[in-house]
Write a structure and sequence with these properties.
The chain has 208 residues and is α/β, with parallel strands linked by helices. The chain folds into two domains: 9-132, Thiamin pyrophosphokinase, catalytic domain (Rossmann fold, 3-Layer(aba) Sandwich), CATH 3.40.50.10240; 139-206, Thiamin pyrophosphokinase, thiamin-binding domain (Jelly Rolls). It contains five helices and 13 strands. It has helices at residues 21-29, 37-45, 62-67, 82-92, 108-121, and strands spanning 9-12, 33-36, 52-55, 72-74, 97-101, 126-130, 134-139, 143-146, 152-157, 163-166, 186-187, 192-197, 201-206. It has a ten-stranded mixed beta sheet, sandwiched between helices. Helix 2 links the parallel strand 2 (33-36) and strand 3. The chain is elongated and about 55 Å long.
Length: 208
Amino acid sequence: MKTNSSTPAVIIANGRFPRHPLPLSYIDNATFIVCCDGAANEFIALGGTPDAIVGDGDSISEENRKRFANILHIVHDQEINDLTKSVNFCIEQGITDIVIVGGTGKREDHTLGNISLLAEYIRKVNVIMATNWGLFTPIQADRVFQSFKGEAVSLFSFDPEPITTQGLQYPLDNRVLTNWWQGSLNTSLGETFTVKTKGRVIVFQAYR
């Protein structure tokens, strides 16, 4: 099942199914869709056909288990969640770019866990998470972000490394963030902003 498509693979996680046009467009334009097994039932009920279903198999209906047996990949490891199993599966297929949708919107502990995992995934693959409210982009080096004046921006740091920003209303100057709230609720001043760091940072950008 190796894939070399230049289009990012889409992973549909078992959070709230997307309703915003941007995450929905990722699904519509995807050439390779992986469902976490808990998300497969809803996606299939909405008329979707996944290319792979990955997880421990405890959430997929018996009907879909039989119908999609040829693309169902059971991973019993309980030390990692179904989202991580799906990311690992994509990497095994040679995929280098992933968009995660449906990663938030239900239980808050699942939401926080899924967002924080982006800081682990960036070590292995290019990945973003598109929610109904905005984009989460993990970085581990300097990055210039496309933006617009007034865009809501938040930074969440995972390593004790200094961060410097340019183009934000409340700039950071070689600052180490020790708690998630310290880099939140900022605003872009124009068409781009820059984040400079050697550590792992997750950048949130709200939609217009």
